[in-house]
Specification:
The protein is of the alpha+beta class. The chain folds into two domains: about 5-155, Glycosidases (TIM Barrel, Alpha-Beta Barrel); about 165-260, Immunoglobulin-like, CATH 2.60.40. The chain is built from four helices and twelve strands. The chain has helices at about 30-35, 35-45, 105-120, 140-155; strands spanning about 5-10, 50, 85-90, 125, 160-165, 175-180, 185-190, 195-200, 205-210, 220, 240, 255-260. A five-stranded antiparallel β-sheet has the order 5-6-7-12-9. The chain starts with 6 loop residues before the first strand and ends with a strand.
Length: about 260
């Protein structure tokens, strides 16, 4: 009677956790206890298009790494295949509202968490808990606003994007995402460089580049720039961006790169 439901998020199975002694009550339950096969079959019979996570101990549509940042695209442990995954995180150290919470993530950490996730092929789920009055407190609202303010200008590097093709290499302290059609790269600057940014292997492949937050052009040079003299014969394949000396007024600046056909 709820209408169309998009996601059913089971949480959690610990059949391998077996407490002993006075901890015997901690024995975890698993797919047999939940009758997971029947649960999933019932859900799909009622909602044929529903997305179900993998926490019943039966792999389904979605893998859900929790409270850590995968450094590569998540793979199925059995087959090694790339999977559809969504990282789940909290804005603070608590899943629900906690009045005395002191471990709220900084604005920079929140944006980097988002970019890191997408640049490794994932989706990001952020958890926030209301107070007993049913409202979000000021800290939660401020944290949500961090995403809103940054995404207002930079959402093109997130929505419809994923991990860049292996041929494109990330410079130090940067993250790459790529558009679904493969025609644009988005270079996220975690540590803002002074004057120049060298990108390996990108020489000869770029038509145009601009900052995403304001659409201003970012000039570049193909090949070995005089400021990066090197004996490495591969350096001629690199690209050097000329960036302003002063970091733009955004938590994580993004260079939108239009690739040549």
């Amino acid at each position: 009677n709820y209408g169309k439901i998009d996601i059913l998020w089971f949480d959690f199975s610990y059949s391998q956790n077996n407490g002993t002694g006075d901890k015997a009550w901690q024995k975890g339950k698993g797919k047999d206890d939940w009758e997971a096969e029947k649960l999933i079959a019932t859900a799909r019979a009622l909602q044929p298009h529903i997305i179900i996570d993998n926490r019943t101990e039966i792999d389904q549509d979605l893998w859900t790494p929790e409270q850590y940042e995968p450094d590569q695209w998540v793979r199925d442990k059995k087959t090694g295949e790339l999977v559809t995954w969504e990282a789940c995180h909290t804005f603070s150290g608590s899943w629900g509202y906690f009045r005395d919470e002191q471990t709220w993530k900084s604005p920079e950490m929140l944006i980097r968490l988002l970019v890191n996730t997408v640049s490794r092929g994932g989706n990001l789920l952020m958890n926030v808990g209301p107070t007993s009055r049913g409202y979000l407190d000021y800290r939660a609202e401020e944290a949500l606003k961090v995403f809103a303010d940054w995404m207002k200008y930079n959402s093109r590097s997130i929505y419809g994007c994923t991990m860049a093709e292996p041929a494109f290499k990330e410079p130090r302290d940067c993250r790459l995402t790529q558009s679904e059609d493969g025609k644009r790269l988005y270079l996220h600057l975690f540590a803002y460089p002074f004057g120049y940014l060298r990108v390996p292997g990108l020489g000869g492949k770029v038509e145009y580049a601009q900052f995403l937050h304001d659409g201003s052009e970012v000039r570049f040079t193909d090949g070995t720039d005089c400021f990066f003299l090197t004996d490495d014969p591969e350096a001629a394949k690199d690209l050097v961006f000329y960036v302003p000396n002063v970091k733009p007024h955004t938590l994580v600046p993004v260079i939108e790169i239009f690739l040549k056909d």
